[in-house]
Amino acid sequence: MDDLTIRAGVIVGLAIVALVLTGWRKPARAEPRSPRGPLQRERVGIVVDHDDAPLYRRPGIVRRVLALAASGGIGVLSGVLIAIVTSFAIAYAVIKLTDLLTQ
Rounded to whole angstroms, what are the CA distances from 58 to 64, 65, 69? Predict the structure, then answer.
């Protein structure tokens, strides 16, 4: 094997050993220090207001038509941009390959 491969393997092994030793020394999640005896806490309630949500209303026909037109326009625009990028990539590949054939 190559000397560089052996060095890389040794470095990887040392990194794994360092990670394992770091994990043993310090836990990943901090734990709160609790008193030794059982802890008695008072139950404190929170007042919650219950409000009715407004009923759902469907959007009007004009808003739906505008949303349909906008999403269609975005679809056409993104399709045109993808077609332009793809055609330039294909043209570049064809030019490069024909240049290689003529050499």
Answer: 9, 13, 18
